[in-house]
Design a protein that fits this description.
Blueprint (H helix, E strand, L loop, with lengths): L4 E5 L6 H12 L2 E4 H15 L6 H10 L2 E3 L4 E3 L2 E2 L7 H10 L3 H14 L5 E5 L2 H5 L5 E6 L2 H9 L10 H17 L12 E4 L5 H18 L1
Bound molecules: cytidine-5'-monophosphate.
Length: 220
Amino acid sequence: MRKLIIAIDGPSGVGKGTVARAIAAELGYRHVDSGAMYRAVGWKALQLGVRLDQEDTLSGLATDSTIEISATLVAIDGTDITRAIRTPEIDKAAAAVARLPNVRAILVGRQRRLGLDGGIVMEGRDIGTVVFPQADLKLYLDASVEERARRRASDSAHSGPVALAEVATALKARDQSDSTRAASPLYAAADAVVIDTTGTPVADVVAQVMALVKTLLIAE
Ligand code: C5P
């Protein structure tokens, strides 16, 4: 059976990771969190004291770094940063480096290579629009900002404020940066299936997506 490329995009805190992980596990595919790559570059920039608008330095840094992403680990140059990249500071640093076209070009190239043989569920902001415009299935997950703030505040992998109003303000700022930037802004591809997950249990979203996947595989 052909191994599909499944692209999942959507705003921060919508639950892309949870859905992508579940779909990948059901299909025996690889799950790739592309945001972790932007976070890794943002983390290293802060460690080295590189300003987040220094495009040449940051793209050199991205080129020279080895970024490892597995189901349980994110590492850069061999350093485990799995937990260190889930902080409000790195939320901002990742969104800043993600605005830079030359940094994006390097990371998009790596993301495409990961998908060469199919059998991948990749989540991010531009997966269906830029990374894999030929993806077999494109999903765009959305949810109200209040619901996304609740999900983010209860995510134990992510540190930061627990006051919902504060989480919501930070999410809105990142959404604004991600959807208004010139380079690969966040939007739903014309051929994406848009799912509003507000009020929907994650198991139901996964079931909806699996139904779409099965229809595709049966049609082969
Ligand atoms: O998905 P996550 O919140 O971990 O992504 C961190 C940041 O990386 C996002 O706010 C966004 O600016 C950037 N990003 C991106 N393109 C992707 C994935 C993430 O620009 N495909």
